[in-house]
Design goal:
Blueprint: H1 2-24, E1 28-31, H2 34-42, E2 47-50, H3 68-71, E3 77-80, H4 85-92, E4 101-103, H5 110-124, H6 127-150, E5 157-161, H7 165-171, E6 174-179, H8 186-193, E7 199-203, H9 210-216, E8 220-223, H10 234-246
Parallel strand pairs: 1-2, 1-3, 3-4, 5-6, 5-7, 7-8
Helix pairs in contact: 5-6, 6-10, 8-9
């Protein structure tokens, strides 16, 4: 009988120690860019090592360096979006387990980010942290969209760069035209200007809307997709972009 009690005690102790270890184990993630890094951080990763420097205007163009291999040392996961050539070179140069390489969808809409952060949290084993972030983020974006509606955002006509389209449509703008990340021809510039937009919403990382704004004689604003070093949290990114847009909206008092 004493032997059985002793065995039960040891099993309970083992379960307790295992649970404590699981809760305190550090999750280390190597991320391709500040965008995928911010998603990993939101999901609860304890340490996020971002490869592409924050200072790059277009981070996917980062050139692979042999020193990047060292940054994978002791990492649990490698997170990327699928369009970063340097990650393919990194994978070819290492034996990092493919099962620990996670591809995420980088679209800055609340629904996508909530889905991806929740998914990463399950993979990392950090579901509580991910759920806490989702709760705070949901409150933030709901308040943001409510304010946008109060300011009559649906009445403002805009042309937008394609990589900001999803976010702009989610906010509620009347999108009258979408231009690409490629340089616009004079004919295309005139075509978009004739749509009579009130604002050009451009993409900081590959802006192409300056000509449209000049011809139409309207304001142009550049939004970010990849967080800056000063604000590597997606909540901060949303707030930063919203502040830039809000000043072009007016409310009838």
């Amino acid at each position: 009988m004493k032997g059985v009690k002793h065995l039960v005690f040891l099993l309970m102790l083992l379960v307790l120690v295992s649970s404590v270890f699981a809760e305190t184990e550090k999750v280390v993630v190597v991320a391709s860019t500040s965008w995928t890094g911010a998603m990993a951080k939101a999901a609860g990763a304890d340490e996020v090592r971002v490869l592409a420097p924050f200072e790059l205007q277009h981070p996917p163009e980062y050139d692979f360096r042999p020193s990047d291999i060292q940054r994978l040392e002791a990492a649990d996961f490698l997170v990327w979006a699928g369009y970063e050539p340097f990650i393919k070179r990194l994978q070819e140069s290492t034996e990092f387990p493919p099962t620990q390489v996670i591809r995420v969808i980088t679209v800055n809409t609340p629904s996508n980010l909530i889905n991806e952060v929740t998914r990463l949290g399950k993979i990392f084993g950090t579901e509580k942290k991910a759920n806490d972030w989702v709760r705070d983020f949901t409150m933030q974006v709901e308040a943001m969209k409510k304010r946008a509606q109060e300011l009559g955002i649906n009445e403002q006509r805009v042309v937008v760069q394609q990589h900001q389209e999803a976010f702009v449509r989610w906010l509620g703008y009347e999108v009258v035209g979408v231009f690409s990340a490629e340089e616009l021809t004079p004919a295309k510039v005139m075509e978009f200007a004739r749509l009579k937009p009130q604002v050009v919403i451009d993409n900081f990382h590959n802006p192409q809307g300056k000509g449209v704004a000049e011809v139409a004689e309207i304001p142009r604003v550049e939004l970010r997709n990849f967080p800056s070093k000063s604000g590597d949290d997606l909540r901060w990114l949303f707030q930063e972009n919203w502040v830039k847009l809000e000043k072009f909206l007016k409310v009838d008092d």
